[in-house]
Design a protein that fits this description.
The chain has 350 residues and is an alpha+beta fold. The protein contains nine helices and ten strands. The chain has four domains: 69 residues, no CATH class; 101 residues, Band 7 domain (Tetrahydropterin Synthase, Chain A, 2-Layer Sandwich); 67 residues; 74 residues, no CATH class. The strands form four sheets. The protein has a three-stranded antiparallel β-sheet with strand order 3-2-5. It has a three-stranded antiparallel β-sheet with strand order 6-7-8. Strand 6 and strand 7 form a beta hairpin. It is rod-shaped and about 195 Å long. The relative contact order is 0.06. It is found in: Membrane. It comes from Spongisporangium articulatum.
Amino acid sequence: MDDSSGGAVIALIVLALIVIFALTTIAKAIRIVPQATAVIVERLGRYSRTLEAGLNFLVPFVDRPRAIVDLREQVVSFPPQPVITSDNLVVSIDTVIYYQPTDPKAATYEIANYIQGIEQLTVTTLRNVIGSLDLEQTLTSRDQINGQLRGVLDEATGRWGIRVNRVELKAIDPPASVQDSMEKQMRAERDRRAAILNAEGVKQSQILTAEGDKQSAILRAEGQAQAAILKAQGESRAILQVFDAIHRGNPDPKLLAYQYLQTLPQIANSASSKLWIVPTELTQALNSISGALGGRVGSDGPSGVIGDSGLDDSIETPTLEDPSVALSRAQAEAEGAVKDAESARPDEPK
């Protein structure tokens, strides 16, 4: 009884081991590879084949997966690297590499760690490229540096089964002292540009102001000229009208003498006149006026009486004189009176 039960247990154990072995064999014989992934398979320690995406079968205990290679494009960022420029300045440069495995077998067997290889190759190439450029060229020639790095890396990593798609300089950091000097230089440049723009604005403002003053002065002068012309034309017309009126009125010497008496106060009111001299022609002018009024004042009273006709018959009708002759005579008398007044004025110290 005991022997039969012990044999059954042993049989169950053996059966379980057989099932486990069978499941393990099936698991090793079947391999499902994801998309964009390649599996390197070795058979008895040697490269056998590369499994593509999908369901694949292996020989259990003979075939062994060596490496799983991701075929997608990958990005790796390297830490900042100190690089010396041609003008002996140390700059810190961060780089970013975009790469993609194209040959899983070469990426597995040609280099032990292609990420480390790409990093070291990037550092050495970057130092060679930056060493031939000064600081200003380094800061302004990123595209040129990226192109040179990509060319060198793509050529070197081609035999590793890696294609470098793109190389970017993420940051270029010069020393702190150089950054401070650059900031001061940029600040001075901005201040200079601001001063130039301010001066240009002031210049334009002064030019516009001068142009405005010029136009204003021109318009003001044109207005004054037009006003003077209009005033002269008005005075000319007034003189012509007065002259025509005088000719139409046919004035006699008595009227001219009366006008002469009205002009004497204006001559005496002159600021340069120190004395008021009554010329001798004043008596003749008064006689002419009194004769025109119709009588003379004597010791016996009025010499004429106004009758029904309005004038004394004893007054003779005055003979009319030519206006031009009368005007010339009046001007001559006025000039004589002025000369008499100047000769009678005492000499003043000069």
